[in-house]
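Changelog note: in this version the structure field was regenerated for every chain. One regenerated record is shown below for reference.
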Amino acid sequence: MNVLYDAFRASMKSSAWKCEPQRFEADFLSEIVSLKDDLDDRTYTTSPRNVFVTHERGKARLIHGGRMRDRVVRHALCDNILNPTFDRYIIFNNCASQHGKGVDFARKLFERDLHNFWLEHRTNDGYVCFVDFSKFYDNIQHDVVKDAVCKRVDEHTGWLFSSIIDTFKVDVSYMDEAEYSTCIDKKFNSIEYYESVPDHLKTGQRFMAKSVDIGDQISQSIGVYFPTPIDNYITIVRGHRRAGRYMDDIYIIHHDLEYLKETLKGAYEQAGRLGLYINEKKTHICKLSSKFTYLQMRYQLTDTGKVIRRVKPETVTRERRKLKKYKKLLDNKEASYDNIKQSYKSWMGKYAPILSKKQRNNMKKLYYELFKEDPRWKKS
């Protein structure tokens, strides 16, 4: 009971619901009691979700928005059981969606590994391999992920986890028998499915047990834990000490190009066993002395051991375009200047320390030309 209430409070902190907390909490106490009874009796079911497409850095993503009742269950399950259980099995350099870790932590570890490579070899004559998965969440097979998780938890938790995973199944009633028999082994694209398959063809006759919903907390926990066999292969079987992963982005640093290629080949095999697909266009090996990108930052290791870090030019260009759009919205009285200024200060506080002097000055100049002000910001 207390666990569900704590999960409710955690859900409220991230909730966009506009209601008075005291009144809502009082109404929700009876729902918590009912929810506990449903979980004890194993009659709990996930409510229908809202589905919408969002765009992040020009990439379309299909998001499923859950109801408050289901968010409470996810919080309780992930925060109290799944995540503490997974922590015992994942590598230290697995950095996403964990307490005390995140994208900044991942970047610091990556930079540390670059420094340590130079300190060991006293040269930047080495290589870094970047591995990226293609449609990572879309191609997680339910049976495989259930086997991976249920062996780590008790039977009741396994039932709840499996029942939630079952709600992610994809309606493929439009497929004929031959297509349906092979769909589980083919790459799935949820955006193409959402845009090309009309609702009247989703009749509930056939389902594909594949794909998990982006936006669901369960999916985030799965994303952290599920590729662990690949992490273990890289760090334990192949013995790479300078390697890490942020969700579906992996890096491996090594001085021997051929050994790195053999590791990459093995990573492909491990991914195949899990039913995952590696994106060949984004997976590549490059020299440490060249410029390369990791987690939206551009890096270079110099021959003196200095790690040069810069913001990708595309990131700056995207922010400049956003400011110009903000100006049009402001002129049309569709946006508040205070919100625009706060957005700009937040972006500059995050990126200004690693922008070049020219980039910083150009951003300040553009903002002044648009809004006739030069606001100050704090380093994040």
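Spot check on this record: The first strand starts at residue 50 and ends at 56. The CA atoms of residues 367 and 373 lie 7 Å apart.
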